[in-house]
Write a structure and sequence with these properties.
heterodimer; A: 262 residues; 10 helices; B: 251 residues; alpha/beta; 4-stranded antiparallel sheet; 9 helices
Chain lengths: 262, 251
């Protein structure tokens, strides 16, 4: 029986925010993955026309999407590293150039940049659509990647730099042997996230006549007029890919933090 | 170079942080093999002075000559001078991504182009000296503060420097770990290393120092041998400082 006149306030002992291994939490990731897989299997099985036909038509696009993603991210990482280093450079000109690049790219929508680079390139040189798409994506993501690299480099305690300098390493050697190898651990997880974001954004290149997943879907839909069914499958394919990738990245992230705790 | 010439010569060093004058026309000469302990209240400029010696801190006026080479001279390679001036930091600053052994071998291999085997045997003998040989394969994060600092000393020694600078090497340590680090420093002093030590360890200053330098307000206030400094300080500010730190706790 509650005592009269006393208001009891329950202060729980649990964590304010549920921890990832909290038993009560149901993994949204598992539900989404199961749902995507079940639908991708069940729909073509129950209604082969059009679902199975769509699944047969689209895979070429998956390859192209991955090609664009991998080439773009590789190039973007190179640009990002240079930009990140530029942004922390003491050389005024280099610093300004890198900062200006980041400001400009971040201020223009990706789709506009894609069109711009595609047609700007087209005015001077004839490049394959795929190459133009990769250059445009990398140009845009390089700026975001630059910020990731800059943050990663700045996250390393200044004492590490001082220790290296005091031994006789110059600035460049300090960066190469001491700072970047440590910053890499901070940088890798966000780079993984950028990879997923970039993979999704490659759907924009379908506009530039690059036959990625979305473009293949559109081609199928415009012939068969099965718009709803096609885009259902397209969405499920993207979802499945990104779910798997995000899991891989969180495993990688865990491994890296494990290394720190060792 | 004459043997009697100082290996470190600081001449009228002035250093500003913004508008704050951290060092004010500081001059100091240190002979090869000399052990100098720099004392003073916090904010007196002692760490700043130490850090100007290997140019981790730039100066606004004055000259610094290390082993006959002007730190700001034309054509002088600061990195080559730094190779001969080892430094030990308050916060150890071991390379976190490298094992103890790799911490010691990195600089000799990359900078002196020493072979891996030679660098490793040098590193192991130095780790032996600081009592850390059995931890050669560990990562810094697995070591206690005292152990990390001993490794840091060995890392600086791996470049076979002529001068060792210590910037409050025991200030970040738990009390029970201070001695293990001081013992290593005492042993190093006995070997004849030129040492400049900023510390609050008065016992170390008394036992090891050839010269005590007392700083206050960005200037050197008193330079004396430890015996006269601790028993008969001349400057009123030194007297006040010693009274404050040596006063028995009255509670």
């Amino acid at each position: 029986m509650p005592e009269p006149g006393i208001t009891k306030i329950d202060v729980g002992d649990g964590a304010a925010i549920p921890t990832p291994d909290d038993k009560g939490l149901v993994s949204a990731w598992w539900i989404a993955l199961t749902g995507a897989v079940v639908l991708l299997v069940l729909l073509p099985w129950l209604k082969p026309d059009p679902y199975l036909n769509i699944l047969r038509f689209v895979p070429d696009g998956i390859v192209v999407t991955f090609q664009v993603t991998v080439f773009s991210i590789t190039l973007a990482i190179v640009i990002g590293l240079l930009t990140g280093l530029g942004r922390i450079s003491r050389n005024r000109f280099v610093n300004l150039a890198a900062s200006l690049y980041v400001e400009v790219v971040r201020g223009i929508p990706l789709l506009v940049q894609l069109f711009y680079i595609y047609y700007a390139l087209g005015r001077f040189v004839r490049v394959p659509d795929m190459l133009a798409a990769v250059i445009a994506m990398a140009f845009c993501y390089g700026a975001y990647m630059g910020e990731v690299f800059r943050a990663g480099i700045k996250s390393i305690d200044h004492g590490q730099t001082e220790a290296a300098l005091s031994l006789g390493f110059n600035q460049r050697q300090t960066m190469a042997y001491v700072i970047l190898p440590q910053a890499w651990r901070t940088i890798l997880p966000p780079v993984g996230n950028e990879f997923i974001a970039l993979l999704k954004d490659t759907s924009l290149v379908s506009i530039l006549a690059v036959a990625d997943i979305l473009r293949r879907g559109r081609e199928y839909a415009s012939e068969s007029f099965n718009y709803f069914e096609t885009y259902t499958m397209i969405a499920l394919i993207y979802l499945l890919i990104t779910l798997i990738l995000s899991k891989l990245i969180s495993i990688m992230e865990h491994r890296l933090s494990h290394y720190e705790r060792r | 170079m004459n043997a009697a010439d100082p290996i470190i010569r600081l001449h009228r060093i002035t250093k500003f942080f913004g508008t704050f004058k951290a060092l004010s026309e500081v001059s100091l000469e240190i002979k090869a093999g000399e052990k100098v302990v720099v004392l003073g209240p916090s904010g007196s400029g002692k760490s700043t002075l130490l850090r100007t010696i290997n140019r981790l801190e730039s100066i606004d006026a004055g000259t610094i000559v290390i082993d006959g080479r002007n730190l700001y001279g034309d054509g002088e390679d600061i990195n080559r001078i730094r190779m001969e001036v080892g430094m030990v930091f308050q916060s150890f600053n071991l390379f976190r991504h490298k094992t103890v052994l790799e911490n010691l071998t990195l600089a000799p291999i990359k900078l002196k182009k020493m072979g891996r085997e030679q660098a490793e045997s040098l590193a192991l003998s130095l780790l032996d000296k600081v009592g850390m040989r059995d931890r050669a394969g560990h990562y810094p994060i697995q070591l206690s503060g005292g152990q990390q600092q001993r490794v840091a000393i060995a890392r600086a020694l791996a470049m076979e420097p002529k001068i060792m600078l210590f910037d409050e090497p025991t200030s970040a340590l738990d009390p029970e770990m201070i001695n293990e680090v001081l013992e290593v420093m005492v042993a190093l002093a006995r070997e004849g290393m030129t040492m400049v030590v900023v510390t609050h360890e008065m016992g170390f200053a008394r036992e090891v120092a050839d010269t005590v330098v007392f700083m206050d307000g960005g200037a050197i206030v008193e330079v004396a041998d430890p015996l006269s400094f601790f028993t008969n300080p001349q400057n009123p500010r030194s007297q006040l400082f010693l009274k404050q730190i040596l006063a028995p706790a009255t509670r």
